[in-house]
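Risk register update: the risk of archive-format incompatibility is retired. Evidence:
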Amino acid sequence: MGELTHFDDHGNAVMVDVSNKDITARTAVAKGRIMVNADVMKAILNHTVKKGDVLGVARVAGIMAVKNTSSLIPMCHPLAINKCQIDFEVHKEAGSIQAVCLVKTEGKTGVEMEALTGVTVALLTVYDMCKAIDKSMEITDIFLEKKTGGKSGDIFNGKDLE
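Archived output:
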């Protein structure tokens, strides 16, 4: 377990100084899912949700969230994002939609928070767009699946959601 670096000698929260770190290629992949009922699933797949193309709008919302993560997470560094991709896997029989967010950059700090924020906002957008049909949807299983680059090296958490 690493040492916590977001506190100074007096216990005050601080942004980590990354000025002496090397610039490296960094990636992160986060996943999560939303559980929906048959009516919501049908409306999404048939493009009959009154607010529009649910997964298309959720994809854009996730990308926007990635680009704005440092505005939401106080100690998160602003980063130049080289790539952001949000994909969805629809599991009709299971009543779930999995969101996957891939983020890439070259920098002094990683993009794990960006990937986690992107997947979360994408799923929240699905909820928002479909809540008129059903408010009992459940967002669940949000986690960092993979990260590469940086001092701590590569990490893979191959959790299977299905």
